[in-house]
Design goal:
5 helices, disordered N terminus, alpha/beta, globular, about 350 residues, 3-stranded mixed beta sheet
Length: about 350
Amino acid sequence: MENKTLYISLVLGMALLTGCRFFREMPHFNENNIPPKPDYSNINYWAAFPGIEDPADKIPGTDSLTNDTSGAVDVFFLHPTSHNKQWRKLTWNASLQNNRINKKTDRGTIQFQASAFNKNTRVFAPRYRQVHINGYFTDKQSDAKKAFDVAYSDVKAAFEYYLKNENKGRPIVIAAHSQGSTHSMRLLREFFDGKPLQNSLVAAYLPGMIVRGEEFKNIPPCRDPQQTGCFVSWRTFKKGTDFNDVPNLPVTNPITWTLDTIYAPKEMNAPSLLRDFKKLYPTLTDAQVKGSILWVTKPKFPWSFIYVWNNFHIADINFYYFSIQNNMENRIKSYSRQINPELK
């Protein structure tokens, strides 16, 4: 009964985020209502941090945790939107003292997404005053920009704290999803693109958002599974979904890690995750780049028949969880060989 409830929760959650359009209108942005700034020297403002047991340390299918204090590479992970309630007073930016949102972030995206990047790495995931989901759909664009600027100011402050106190010259993976990818693009432009720090970039994983080929001047899209100093991005939809073509939009196939349109069957995919972190799904999903989006055959799992929408945004990472983990490991090895050609 518990697993049934979990699957129904997953399906309804996916419906809420990807299929429904009942977004309430946001109030005008009021600077007097901005929640207090975080202090990133305080560990409470981090959802994941090396040396502290947190959901990003978990290993799917086991009760084990990673030892994230000895990894060779750092991962800076920016979580997607968990500030999405529609039936209470709407606020543009989430308060970092909101325990409900923090728990939702930790039990959801930190555990099910950030943990995909924990193999032989140290994972840093700041809490930030994220923008309400309605910020992506409102007509109040000037208000939305102010709210996104508030959220990014936290991301920037967290990254600057990390660079000053924790990085110590280590290679970096930037990883994110959805709203996290929105802020990651800005972070990459400001700190990496054509800057000395670009030499430390292993790769950037930016699923869930449109990332155009010209987004960066010096950071190209990854064209093969071994390339470093590049970015990958995809948006997952049911096979057959129509799409609006976006010019110069490189879409990554997260099974083959190329930009071509060759079909990758589910047998090529590494195991996936859904709602139960202890249960792995081998050969759950396939993948094929189709124009501006990634097509996937609708996977079969308990209660999947309830999900009738075409958008699998919430599962951009979960469908390809271990494929992502394996690919990051390959890129780290490739990066290490470039730094030290004697490594095999």
